[in-house]
Description:
12 helices
Amino acid sequence: xxxxxxxxxxxxxxxxxxxxxxxxxxxxxxxxxxxxxxxxxxxxxxxxxxxxxxxxxxxxxxxxxxxxxxxxxxxxxxxxxxxxxxxxxxxxxxxxxxxxxxxxxxxxxxxxxxxxxxxxxxxxxxxxxxxxxxxxxxxxxxxxxxxxxxxxxxxxxxxxxxxxxxxxxxxxxxxxxxxxxxxxxxxxxxxxxxxxxxxxxxxxxxxxxxxxxxxxxxxxxxxxxxxxxxxxxxxxxxxxxxxxxxxxxxxxxxxxxxxxxxxxxxxxxxxxxxxxxxxxxxxxxxxxxxxxxxxxxxxxxxxxxxxxxxxxxxxxxxxxxxxxxxxxxxxxxxxxxxxxxxxxxxxxxxxxxxxxxxxxxxxxx
Length: 365
Ligand SMILES: Cc1ncc(COP(=O)(O)O)c(C=O)c1O
């Protein structure tokens, strides 16, 4: 079976170091908010290039906490993309804000910044650009469009280590939210998330709000919740962070192989935006025809693929909000599919996958 993402391969490669840190944490008696969380926050902030990093329980919580500490309140409008994972939307809803959707570009699948100004109103308080599949939105250009007072929260859940003009995704906005869900480029063995920012007051507030609003054992200063990163996940993530650049480089080699082996007129890969070194969190292509039949044929050959995303999220049953005209996202969702992609995937699997796709199209005339 060729999985779209095989997490056991990564564990096998780093199991010795991971087993050791897990044992160390278990023997230490410190299980939440201990030395590993603190060290990982410093290491991750240094990696991304921000002054502060605040660990939380998930990427969704990182988005919610960042919106909260950025001062987004009920009724505020927050602009984002309809072509993203549901949590981008859930977080905006959770703080009571009103999501406003801007359609995507047909080839990069990122928010179309040329349509952003038209979506702004007097109630626009924030924009959440999503660095989808590890391609990076031009946030400096976005800043020029929205001006200095609108808050920018980068959704970096899929963008660990991706860069724009030499700088890491996550340094451009007022704050950024990362997820360490197991399948992410930097993945834990459970849930985890991180807020990064250069804003000291924001970091301080996020730090207290993640633990009931407390700043010390006997003092709480504001409203808060419980969203902590635990020591086991932090210790595991510290090990994996040391390999993140190498793992992303391997993903780029896999992407280059697909590009060489597949016909771009039939399987058109996501266009990488100018100045971006992507992390290929997902290797997404637009399939010119018969996508669903291709997915079934690959499945019969033991090759797992996936559709990210089957529809703009405004078409989901749980969506609560206004209707938007999103023709590009709708069209992309009908053609897009994700091929097997993870750093440890054997080259032979990549060749088998490409051969199966080519064989399908040679017989489908
Ligand atoms: C774009 C995007 N935003 C937010 C999230 C939420 O992260 P988590 O699953 O850690 O809550 C995810 C991951 O699922 C994601 O892909």
